[in-house]
Amino acid sequence: MIVRRSPILAFALLVMPAVAGAQTAAQPAAGTPATSPAAPAAAPQSAIPARTPRDPTPDQVAAHIATLHQQLGITPAEEGAWNSFAQVMRDNAARFHDAIMQRRDRLAGMSAADNMQSYADLVTQRAQDLQALNKAFRTLYDGFSDAQKKQADTLFRRSDGHDQAR
Prior knowledge:
Layout: H1 7-15, H2 58-72, H3 79-107, H4 112-142, H5 146-159
Helix pairs in contact: 1-4, 2-3, 3-4
């Protein structure tokens, strides 16, 4: 499956980096021991950091919402759909923040299996939140003028790193 980044998806990735594969080859998956041919067989547990996704601040969420509002050229007639979409972003961010805080509070006492399950639960919630965000955006997008749709499509392609000429 190919995932395209868009301003909406960029926000989701800001809030939900694991959905887009935020882990790199240099970072082990949550609950997976960091081993390499040069690594000691039994590193102390404190030497292996638990991975918890990035948690944006409310100010970062608000700034992203304001930027999208301007970039998409939201009209007064679209404010209702926009406000619903923006509220889904805020709700998702708040829910994610709460989940991150709960994970951090319990992390020290988690077994490796519990750690992995906790991370899986975060990713599952994030995927559900992204579906809700997509539904809210679809409603907004469907109400756009042709020019706004073209602008949104271009903006989303640009944020995905694709050349405009394609």
